[in-house]
Amino acid sequence: MLRKLLKAIFTKNSSHHKHRWSSSDHLKMYHSKTHHSKYGHHHYQKKYHSGSFFSSFLDS
Amino acid sequence: MKRWNWLYAGIEHFLERPYQVGKIINHRYRIKNCLGMGSYGITYIAWDIVTNQYVVLKQMRKTKRNKGTLSFQREAQILKMLKHPRIPKLYDSFMIKDIPHLVMELISGKTVEDLIFKEGKTFTERESFELLIDILAIVQYMHQNGIVHRDLRIPNIILNEGNAYVIDFGLARFLTESERMNNDDVIEKKLRREISVKSDFYALGHFMLFLLYSTYEPTVKEERSWEEELSLSMEARYILRKMLQIDTPYEDIHELSADIHRLLQRWGNGGVNDVIV
Ligand SMILES: Nc1ncnc2c1ncn2[C@@H]1O[C@H](COP(=O)(O)OP(=O)(O)OP(=O)(O)O)[C@@H](O)[C@H]1O
Ligand SMILES: [Mg+2]
């Protein structure tokens, strides 16, 4: 079991590591204190960090 | 938190264990590669050995079994109902060990997110609004059929040979449904997730700003609002403020498309007549 877990951690397909926006990513943005009418280049030019499902748990 | 992301990703991978490349699902779909792991599902490209074509296979995450099953059923029901050349067709749906799976049409092309952030594609004001008109024709079809998408963002719009396609109906709802909103939810979440056509216009307002920012070079690190940073025409600002519900929101798509057509006429627009006003 442990070996399988370690193997999964170290050999995971790199595509899962690759950033993808996810519907859940936006949840993070909801915590932003800035009103959306004030968003500027920080918001529209930077990509949000992808969440593992742990972070989506924490956020939702 | 960030420091441990690799570990979380590893544990997540272990718990979910996506299908291996080459595995045949439901005696029919050979996994080619994994497109991504989203909030509810794991998405793959697979080869359909019956019809000899690539398809998109979406497998619900095991860890999201309760909420996820309903959401998968709804996505299937909505995709089945919508028959539009710019919306993926639902081909098949089945369960494997209580895990719902959906098979749908593979839309070729690139997401607007990848075009802007990976390929450095830029959109002028005119190009942005022309693209919006193209997307609104699909959105009009959805709204007419009583569906609101609620997740119209740059990764969910695919461009192929100049045509826009809408994907990911995981958050779509019937306009007749109601959903309890948490009073503590911040305004942004309420505006995005409200079951109303306005939430699609709101999301598309932000979508437009991603396009319009593709040509913006910041001169200072400090962030000002998009209205101060971008040099937009007065009409464009007027439309965006209404889409983003800073000013009185658009109540239906005709009102919005009429304003965009007026703006496009400034450039002597020819041939943009997808949305019937
Ligand atoms: N029909 C399709 N044709 C082509 N690509 C698709 C299709 N459906 C999904 N994809 C690709 O797979 C990715 C993940 O799919 P989708 O967004 O439907 O899953 P999801 O579970 O909702 O994930 P997320 O939470 O990240 O949105 C998308 O970003 C898109 O690039
Ligand atoms: Mg998605």
What key attributes describe this structure?
heterodimer, A: 60 residues, mainly alpha, 5 helices, B: 277 residues, alpha+beta, Phosphorylase Kinase, domain 1, Transferase(Phosphotransferase), domain 1, 2 domains, 6-stranded antiparallel β-sheet, 3-stranded antiparallel β-sheet, 11 strands, binds adenosine-5'-triphosphate, binds magnesium ion
Account of the protein in words:
The complex is a heterodimer of chains A (60) and B (277). By secondary structure, chain A is mostly helical. Chain A has five helices and no strands. Chain A has helices at residues 2-11, 14-17, 25-30, 41-44, 53-59. Chain A starts with a helix and ends with a helix. Residues 13-27 and 48-60 of chain A have low confidence and may be disordered. Chain B is of the alpha+beta class. Chain B folds into two domains: 19-105, Phosphorylase Kinase, domain 1 (2-Layer Sandwich), CATH 3.30.200; 110-276, Transferase(Phosphotransferase), domain 1 (Orthogonal Bundle). Chain B is 38% helix and 20% strand. Chain B is built from nine helices and eleven strands. Chain B has helices at residues 5-16, 65-81, 112-117, 125-144, 187-193, 197-212, 226-229, 234-243, 253-265; strands at 24-25, 29-37, 41-48, 53-60, 90-96, 99-105, 110-111, 147-148, 157-160, 163-166, 173-174. In chain B, strands 1-2-3-4-6-5 form a six-stranded antiparallel β-sheet, with helices on one face. In chain B, strands 7-9-10 form a three-stranded antiparallel β-sheet. Chain B is globular, with a radius of gyration of 20 Å. Chain B starts with a helix and ends in a 12-residue tail after the last helix. The interface between A and B is large, with 40 and 56 residues. The structure holds adenosine-5'-triphosphate (ATP) and magnesium ion. The site of magnesium ion has 4 residues of chain B, from loops.
